[in-house]
Structures are given as structure tokens and as C-alpha cells.
Design a protein that fits this description.
The protein is mainly alpha-helical and 79 residues long. Helices cover 67% and strands 0% of the residues. Helix 1 (7-28) runs antiparallel to helix 2 (31-44). This is DUF2892 domain-containing protein.
Length: 79
């Protein structure tokens, strides 16, 4: 099972899933099941629907990082 959900996508799915799960338990009912799917795919980093649609946000993130490298600041550098 190759990871096909990028970190931003996974984080958004996880948060949305938690919200929908909470609402599903509290009031809305069936929305909790949809929330569980978002929560699970965000946590695993894999979405079966992305496989069918041939989407891969993890690969998009990797390509973005290669084109836009950033170096974290060096706080341990002494003058």
C-alpha cells in the first residue's frame, strides 16, 4: 500500500474526520461514517479513491519540495 495522500492533505482529512465523527456521535448520525473514512485515510496516508482517480498528493508534495527547497534556520551558529 503506497502512500498517496500528502501531509497537508492528510492533516486536513484527519481534522475534518474528527469534526465529522464528533458531529456524527452528537447529532448528525450518518455523517460520522463519512468522518471515519476521512479520519482513517488521513491517518493511514492512503486513499483508495485516489488510486481509482490516479491522484497522488504525496508525489505532488515531493515535486514541490524539490522545486522549492528551504533550509531551516541554524540557531546553533555562534558568532
Amino acid at each position: 500500500m503506497k502512500k498517496n495522500v500528502g501531509s497537508f492533505d492528510a492533516g486536513a482529512r484527519f481534522i475534518l474526520g474528527c469534526i465529522l465523527l464528533f458531529l456524527g456521535v452528537q447529532t448528525i448520525g450518518w455523517w460520522g461514517l463519512i468522518g471515519f473514512v476521512f479520519w482513517l485515510t488521513g491517518g493511514l496516508g492512503f486513499c483508495p479513491l485516489y488510486c481509482v482517480l490516479r491522484l497522488d498528493t504525496a508525489a505532488w508534495e515531493e515535486r514541490w519540495e524539490k522545486r522549492h527547497p528551504h533550509n531551516p534556520p541554524d540557531f546553533h551558529h555562534s558568532n
